[in-house]
Design brief:
71% helix; mainly alpha; 4% strand; 4-stranded mixed beta sheet; 4 strands; 16 helices
Length: 413
């Protein structure tokens, strides 16, 4: 083992230990507050609902520890255990050539990884979500979704892998810049195509019916100057009882989408407030900022990979006996999360800051009390814990804890 191997193992072990430690803190903190509803919610959420949220979060967190250990073990087997090297050598025997071998290598690795992670998804869906009454997915629908995802992965992933590897092999020393341009363009294409071409492959979308809800939404859109191609309701209840709303697409493909489960639980004023919050992300340019950050990180990562592909220790340190562009790309994709794990709190902080800004925008455009009421209902219906461990929340959570978020909005009422 070389120095890079020791560095990788150290970070891999520290990441796992940190995840286990934070999960243990989270479980203890929630359990300690299980029998007391926070003061700001006592008139709105019953003790039974609070306890259900606590138990639901604890169940997910406990299983998450097993999932993290399983994922860490698989990563070690893929790299230092020789899994990737074995697959690479098996494919080279066929004699397809470097480019074809590379494409099949990457696609095969990702397919095998998906199959190995399938039991985790099955357990979460049919055991944990089922236990708490959220799962609406049938085994038949789950299988259909899995097959559709595999088909979509093949249709989109194969050409992308082929183009990226061709550029890596043929575009010279600046191949990483051209691959970045390819990846950025592909990402923008997906954002554009998702609302009209990809999402309908999995769900049904119907225009929101005429009525008070639509009238309030149209008025909100007009006074905020937001243009959209339509307001749709998605059949989220086919798969889950959880409710949500989101924007998707950009330019002329922008759509507003409500889960049918969300519309069942909120009145028209609350729906307007939730939509105003989502509009806040666009008006405060959060979507563009996040996209630019993602592009910037990917540019830095690919530039780094452009140097790593020339370093023999990078391959040998991660269990590969024969250097190649496809091996370097796959290794980089696999180990990237390990080397960026401790940056997670920084990204979470930025996301929480955006949530506060979107809440402020919603409070300016609608009644802050209605957004508070909507959030309380969503916390209750989605069994979101009101008492996360503060350190766990700082490290992971993209949204502020419920008590802080409500306090921020209450100050604007």
């Amino acid at each position: 083992m070389n120095t890079f191997t020791y560095l990788f193992l150290t970070l891999l072990g520290l990441s796992l230990l940190t995840e286990v430690w934070l999960a243990a803190r989270h479980i203890r903190y929630i359990a300690a507050n299980r029998n007391t509803v926070p003061g700001a919610f006592r008139s709105k959420i019953t003790l039974a609902d609070h306890q259900k949220a606590a138990d639901y979060t604890i169940a997910h967190t406990r299983f998450g520890r097993i999932e993290n250990a399983y994922g860490t073990g698989l990563l070690a087997l893929w790299t230092l255990g020789g899994g990737l090297d074995w697959l690479d050598q098996m494919l080279r025997v066929i004699g397809w050539g470097e480019l074809a071998t590379g494409v099949v290598f990457i696609l095969s690795t990702l397919v095998i990884m998906g199959l190995l992670e399938l039991p985790v998804s099955v357990y979460r869906t049919f055991v944990i979500e089922n236990r708490f009454g959220f799962n609406k997915t049938t085994p038949r629908l789950f299988l259909a979704d899995t097959i559709k995802q595999a088909l979509l992965f093949g249709i989109l992933g194969a050409p992308l892998a082929l183009a990226a590897l061709w550029l890596m092999q043929e575009a010279g020393e600046l191949w990483w810049l051209y691959v970045w341009l390819l990846w950025s363009g592909f990402t923008m294409l997906l954002v554009w195509a998702y609302p009209t071409l990809i999402a309908p492959f999995f769900n049904k979308f119907k225009p929101l019916k005429e009525g008070m809800v639509r009238e309030r939404i149209q008025a909100l859109l007009e006074r905020t100057g937001f243009r959209t191609r339509g307001i749709f309701v998605m059949d989220g209840s086919r798969r889950s009882a959880h409710g949500n709303a989101y924007f998707t697409g950009f330019g002329k493909t922008k759509r507003i989408v409500f889960f049918d489960t969300l519309l069942e639980h909120l009145n028209e004023r609350e729906i307007e407030a939730v939509l105003a919050h989502e509009l806040g992300h666009f008006k405060r340019r959060h979507v563009i900022k996040r996209m630019l950050l993602t592009f910037g990180i990917s540019l830095f990562g690919l530039a780094l990979l452009g140097w790593l592909v020339t370093q023999p220790w990078f391959y040998s340190g991660l269990g590969m006996s024969q250097p190649s562009m496809h091996a370097a790309l796959m290794l980089f994709m696999l180990i990237g999360p390990v080397f960026t794990f401790f940056l997670q709190p920084l990204f979470a902080w930025g996301s929480r800051r955006h949530e506060y800004e979107a809440d402020s925008f919603a409070a300016d455009q609608t009644d802050a009390a209605e957004l508070v009421s909507a959030l309380v209902k969503l916390y209750r219906e989605n069994a979101s814990t009101l008492t996360p461990d503060p350190l766990h929340s700082v490290f992971y959570d993209s949204h502020p804890p419920a008590t802080l978020r409500i306090a921020h909005l209450t100050g604007k009422t």
